[in-house]
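Section 3.1: Structural characterization of target chains.
Under the original work plan, the team committed to producing a structural model for every single-chain target entering the pipeline before any wet-lab resources were allocated. The record below documents one such target. The sequence was received from the expression subgroup and is listed exactly as submitted; it comprises 141 residues.
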Amino acid sequence: AKHALFLFDACFSGSLFALSRAIPESINYKTAKPVRQFITSGSAEETVPDQSIFRSQFVAALEGEGDSNGDGYLSGTELGQFLQDSVVNYSKGAQHPQYGKIRNPNLDKGDFVFMLGDPDRNRWAERQQQMRLEFAAAQTQ
């Protein structure tokens, strides 16, 4: 849908409006156009385990690790690329996420965008380093 309405019947729900900040022009451009994007946890030929690395990497991306350009926003394209790279890596090539936009000239112009907030760069760097060490340790076993 091009438009969405959200209703909140909850305590402190008005604080939602305190979250606004200046949105970069590149993000405005991406969100102004309609898009239908898809991300799958594996390829057409693969079975995917219930406890796959995909879920944890999805959460890591939303926590800021997928923000490849460091602008505080995670686009659907950034998310897809991050999941494809990290899941293939951490699954040792057993799982191959796919991502893309629908093939429709009216629905493939924009990009889905998550606002991440103010990322704590040290936390993300530490987590990435920890995952690299865990991966290296798993390779030696």
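Strands lie at 37-40, 73-75, 98-101, 113-115.
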